[in-house]
Structure formats: structure tokens, C-alpha cells
Amino acid sequence: MSKLKIGMMMLSGALAFASCKGTTSGTTDGKEKAASGYSKDFKVEAEAFADLQLLRYEVPGWDELTLQQKTLAYYLYEAALCGRDIYYDQANIHGLTLRKTIETIYTTYKGDKNSEDWKKFMEYAGRFWFSTGNHHHYSKDKFIPECSEEYFKSLVKNSDTTKLPLEQGESVDAFLTRIHAPLYDMSYMPKMVDLRAGVDNIANSSNNFYEGVTQKEVEAFYNNPALFPHSDREPEWGLNSKVMKDASGKLIEKVWKQGGMYDAAITKMVSWLEKAVTVAENEAQKKALSLLVEYYKTGDLNKWDEYNIAWTADTASRIDASIGYIEVYNDAIGKKGSYEAVVSLKDLETTKIVSKIASEAQWFEDNSPLMPEHKKKQVKGITAKGITVIVEAGDAAPSTPIGINLPNSDWVRKEHGSKSVSLTNIVHAYNESSKSSGMLEEFVDGKEDMDRIKQYGSLASDLHTDMHECIGHASGQINPGVGTPDKTLKNYASALEEARADLVALYYIMDKKLVDIGVMPSLEVGKAEYYNYMMNGLMTQLTRLKLGDKIEEAHMRNRALNAYWVYEKGKKDNVVELIKKDGKTFVKINDYNKLRTLFGELLKEIQRIKSEGDFNAGKNLVETYGVKVDPVLHKEILDRYAKLNTKPYKGFVQPRLVPVMNGDKITDVKIEYPTSFYEQMAEYAKGYSLLPAKN
Ligand code: ZN
What would the pLDDT profile of 294-332 be if each residue is shown by its tens digit? Predict the structure, then answer.
């Protein structure tokens, strides 16, 4: 599994001074452009509310594209947005009903829009759209409107009720009764993904991947070789379907394909993908896109593998996209893929740097601290590039990854390699917005560390992302006969996999090799990353949790696990300390080299756990170091954070592509940068509401 979210960037994003792209190179479109193609006067911030900040990103390089490339990007952009409804329905069975209700109010309510209650409704609407439903996008906890239910009902009644998702013959009052529990009852479907140990993780998760089935039944279903044959080249069984029971009580899959579940959205998406095939840049891309179309038409997961093999082989194209059911974090047992889409163009400058790293993949594998039998004898071609995002949708928006490594299938990766990307214009926008957050000043102690982080923090976190995606996920191998991690490590698989990838990055960011290949100037970069990582893992990532919460999200568990494990193990040598100054806690690293050795030891152990499928050891590590939160420290961090001018979660308003037509011929495609997230949600509601409320 392979998506790196912004969590660890939270601080280093503030530190972009080292990569400040200050030089200007003349004027385009009446705007001053920086050398890197970013406009100097581009406003990065859009709306902010609750714990969320919306940002905007530019697409440098768009104007350099040929008409064919722009047209291809446009078709993929439309295909990407066609799947938007799918993710709402995957996230929760009531997701589309509630969203259509919110949209109706937002666009047609005729009453007072200045009251405090209206502001509370607006905040709820914003949070709902941001999270693709009423479970927080990160914590996965349910949230409800701050305004009263009576007020909410009055909003509905004073809006255009013909636009509500009423069932046949249903009155507005009956509708309001029906949505009461999903909308206002906190005890109803409280958690989108429930990863607690010792409970039925499927029955207790309120996503819409399963209905009326228990975890035991589902596991038995997928372990039945008559239905899902085991092999060395096994597809990602279960990835593209909902599981429920038929009339006789037998488990069945409802497949997300043309003619199956989500037919209307997929049919439209396929029509755009078919257009994209006609303007593909080369044969390799044409083949990949054609296979993707076939996959959506058949739902055949072997086709999905074929597509991924073809997609991995296409490294020459400037325009690229992933549009599919891909990451499995939203399923407690890691089978069901959430719909996501990222359409991009290759960033040629950044690609040079990540290519240098990728081309040394075998060296990194050979020199890693893994046990010899867990090392890949031959690391298959990892291609790495920087990409400039054009649009994101589904699980990739508005909250976005900053690095992606695909495909996810272990055997495809082993035999055909993978593509690793860092999302450079997204990271740029993060960096721009964090410059004034005040995080560093509050949480970093000591001039030496502060100076180092200011100078190298941004580069350090870029390199960490590159190493995590490109070397980390691709490293190591599973022992023969041991099943895939979703089977052996179950609900701990995601956190352990992310921990492993981070540890590879951490181990090597203090290695002279990175200096030798010319991607960083000195080991000072590694020290900056160590400080940042430890501060985040031990302390500042807690800003994302409410008091009393435990850590659940895979990447957060991974960071806490790595940071607390090395902190504990290094205690006898005083490697890392938590010191107190004026009642404030700070991280102090006393021995960077020993810290590196500890990261290496943990990497070796987690690889062993994955290679051998040692569930108990994996569970023990995660539960001991990756889940618990010290309530006293947590409160302190939250209090300090509350005084800063920043929000813990950021997401993005998407650019808009507008074709210029001459008859039915596209003569150009313009890019526009909308300024309002709310207006974008209303626009999407108009253009891309393709599914009924119930699917
Ligand atoms: Zn990852």
C-alpha cells in the first residue's frame, strides 16, 4: 500500500526557505512567473473552517503541452470526475442522500443567510464535502451539524424540496425522519473504519463495502479457493466489489463495473476513457488505457493486473493518470479499493532528481540492514518521476497524497516494477501556505536544530517522500509460501507497511550515498529530517487527534511506532530525550548516528514480520508503540497548537479544464483556477451527479 499523505510534511512544509524559487524569468500572460513556472501573485489559500484549510494549486507546464496532450488531459479529467459519486457511496450507504440534501439547501434555501445557525450549517456542509461524507476524512469519526435538528429541518423545508432525494411517494417529513439517524445520531454508524483489536472490524465499520455480513463470513468467503484461487499471480481479490448476502443467505459480490453496481457513473467514465484512447501519446499508453476500459466493462481483476502492467511499462508519456479503486485503507481488512483519480503531467525538473534515486534501487536493497533472505535479489525497474497534478478526485481529493507508488499488487510489482511519483505542485502549495504557520517557532528548541531545519527541512522532506515511495515500498521480499500481508498481518498490515517504507527512507537519509549521487549536499539534511520526524512522531502529529482519542490512521500509527520505539530503545544510551522548558516539551536528539542504527534495527524487524507473516509480533509492535497517547503531553500539544495561525488538515480546490471548441473540434484547452471550494462543490453537483442516492 502506497500512499504518503501530508502528515509528516506538516512541519517541514513550513520550512521551504531552502527551495525558495525566487528568480523570475520574465512575464507570461501578463503575470510574473517564477523560474519554476509558479506565479508570484497566486493566492494559495481558499476557505478555512473547523480544523480544515483549503488551498489552491497551480499547474506550471500546462502551456507547454501540445494540443493533443491537452486534449488527452481533458478527457482524463472528465473521466476522473465521473467517479466522484462512487466514493461518496463507498464511504457510507447514506452518503449520497445526505450530500444531495446539503446541495439542495446550499443552492436553493431562501431564508436568512446571516444567522449564526446558517454559519453552522455552512461549516457542516464544508466539512461534509471535505470528508466525502460525515465521517472525518482522517480520524474516520462521525461528526454532526452544530445547528439544531429543528433548524436543519427548517432549512430543508424552505429549500426547493423537488430537488431532495425522496423515495417514491415519500413526504418531506418522512424523508426528514429517515435521515435523522445518519445525520444527527452519533451512536448510529459512529466510525467509518474500526480497527480496534478484538471486535468485528467489518460489522463495526460503517463504510459501504459490506452489508449484513460478519468479518468471519467475509474471511471465509475470500479464503475459499474454489471462488478465489490462490496462486503466485493472484489478482487483488475483492478489490472492486461490495459483499452482501443473496436471498438464500449466500455471500455474493456486487461488482463495480459497467452494467454492475455504479453503472451510470462508470458508463460515462468509460465514454471519456474511450475518447482518451484516441488521443493517446504513444502505443504503450494506448494499450494501457484500452485495458483500463476493458476492466471497467468487465470488472475482471485479471484485466486490472494487465492494465497495471501496461501502465507501469508506459514511462514515456507526458500526461498520466490513475483512475480506479486503488487504496484499501478505508476497509478494515484491506481488500476493498476506494475510488480515486489523479491526472497529471510529468515535471521534468524533479524527475531528474528522483530518477537518480530510483536508478540506485539495487544498491539500496543490497546495503540495507535487512536479513539477507528478506532482500530482493533483483529489484525490478522502479521508475520515478515528479508530477504536476492537473486534477484529483475521489479518495485523492480534496485531501491529497504527496507521494504515490503504484500498482499495489505485490506480484505485479515484483515482476514488472512500479511507478513512484511525488506531487510537486501540491507540495509547493503546502510549502507556500505553511511559511507563516508559526509551528517551527513553537515546537523546535535550540538554534542549531532550528537553523538546520530552516535550511534543509524542505529538501529533507522531499527526499524522505522520494525514498519512502520509490525505495521503501519496493524493498524486501516475502518468504515463499507466506501469504500476502493483508492475510497474514490483517488490520496491522497498513501501519506496518508504512512504517517499513518510512524506515527505509530514514535509514538512508543519513547515508553518504545520497550525497554521492548528488541529491543532497550533506548529512545535515538527514539530521534535519530526524529532528522533524521525531518531533512529529512523538509530539506534533497529536494535533490531529481529540483529547482521549487513540491513534488509528495507518500513517500516524506508523510514525508513532517508529518514533516511540527508537525513543524507548535508545533510552539507555540517551539517544533521544523529551526535555521540558518553561512547561513546554521539546525533542532533543543527542546522537544522530545511534538513532540511525536504531531505525535500521526496527526496519530489519518489521521486514522480518512482513516476510514471515508474524501477526503476533506485528500486533505487539503496533499496539505497544503506535496506538496509545499520553494524555498529559497530548493536552499540552493541543494547547500550544491552538494559539498558532494554522489548521491541522489541508485540502485542495481543483483546477478547471475548459475546452475551446470549433464546431465539435477541440482547438485548445484552457486551465482555470477556481477560488472557492464551496462553489466548486456546487459546480460538481451540477456536472457530475451521476448516481442515484441508493445504489
Ligand atoms: Zn507509503
Answer: 999 999 999 999 999 999 999 999 999 999 999 999 999
Q: If you write DSSP's letter for every residue of 138-178 in order, what string do you get?
A: TT-BB---SS-HHHHHHHHHTS-GGGS-PPTT--HHHHHHH
Centroid of ligand 1 to alpha carbon of 3 (angstroms): 4
Q: How many CA atoms lie within 13 A of 90 on its CB side?
A: 31
- 276: Cα within 13 Å, side-chain hemisphere: 29
Q: What is the pLDDT of residue 115?
A: 98
Q: What separation in Å is there between the alpha carbon of 326 and the centre of ligand 1? A: 13
Indicate whether 171 pLDDT > 50. Answer: yes
- The better pLDDT of the pair 282, 14 is held by 282
Distance CA 63, CA 107 (A): 34
Between the CA of 98 and the centroid of ligand 1 the distance, in Å, is 32
Q: Kindly report the three-state secondary structure assignment for every residue of 623-692.
A: HHHHCCCCHHHHHHHHHHHHCCCCCCEEEEECCEEEEEEECCEEEEEEEECCCCHHHHHHHHHHHHCCCC
Residue 5 alpha carbon to ligand 1 centre in Å = 8
Amino acid 96 reads L
| C-beta separation of 266 from 87 below 8 A | no
pLDDT at position 1, please? 42
CB of 191 closer than 8 Å to CB of 200? no
DSSP class of residue 468?
A: I
Cα 395 to the center of its chain, rounded Å: 7
Q: In the chain, where are the structural domains located?
A: 215-255
Fill in the amino acid letter for 387: I
DSSP structure string for 175-215: HHHHTHHHHH-TTSS-BSS---TTS-TTTT--SSSBSS--H
- The residue whose grid cell reads 507563516 is 436
What spacing in Å lies between the alpha carbon of 2 and ligand 1's midpoint? Answer: 4
CA 692 to chain centre: 26
Over the stretch 335-353, which tens digit does the pLDDT of each residue have? 999 999 999 999 998 888 8
Q: What 3-state class would DSSP assign to 56? A: strand
Please report which helix (H) or strand (E) contains residue 55, including its range. Answer: strand 52-56
Using CA atoms, how far apart are residues 445 and 587, in angstroms rounded to an integer?
8
CA of 522 to the centre of ligand 1 (A): 25
| Residue indicated by cell numbers 489478482 | 235
Distance between CA 33 and CA 671 in Å, rounded?
16
Cβ-Cβ contacts under 8 Å for 55 (sequence gap 6 or more): 44, 45, 46, 429, 430, 433, 650, 651, 652, 653
Residues with Cβ within 5 Å of ion ligand 1?
2, 4, 498, 501
Query: Are the C-beta atoms of residues 646 and 53 closer than 8 Å to each other?
Result: yes
- Cell numbers standing for residue 569: 530503545
Q: Is 242 helix (H, G, I), strand (E, B) or coil?
A: strand
Ligand 1 centroid, distance to 498 Cα (angstroms): 5
For the record, the C-alpha cell of 160 comes out as 426547493
Q: Which three cell numbers stand for residue 463?
A: 527526499
Among 352, 346, 348, 328, CA closest to 338:
328
Threshold 0.85, pTM exceeds: no
SS3 322: strand
pLDDT in tens, 210-254: 999 999 999 999 999 999 999 999 999 999 999 999 999 999 999
Is 125 in contact with 102 (CB distance < 8 Å)?
A: yes
What separation, in Å, do the N-terminal and C-terminal C-alpha atoms of the chain show?
A: 28
Q: Cα of 416 to ligand 1 centre, how many Å? A: 19
* Strand positions, DSSP E, 511-620: 576-581, 584-589
